Give the backbone structure.
Amino acid sequence: MTSPRPKIVVTRDIGPATMPLLLEKWSSYEIVVWPEDRPCGREWLLENAKGAAALIILVTDKIDAALLDTAGPQLVVVSTVSVGYEHVDVKELAKRNIKFGYTPDVLTDAGTKQIEYTITSTDTFRSC
């Protein structure tokens, strides 16, 4: 029996430099992307975070205990495409041993590489 593909939830199209990389490099994963050019709603995020192994979010997306409870224990990484991370409860992530990354160079190639590093540094994504 094969194991289900890890799910990556992306709360917004993260740009022409990063989205093609994400979709091509991780084509063997289930990738769920918010389809609109505006922030996703909390309900959409809560619904789609269920069962996710990774969340790629923006500053408009609040990551707190309630969302992490909904996502479930298989969530191993959260990466925000933003310079700041006030919208993320990093203490709660640490309590749950969830890796966290952010993109201080959000508008550069370094930002793209930070997202990739954060996700691929977890065992869930190394073993796939």
Remarks:
- The mean pLDDT is 84.
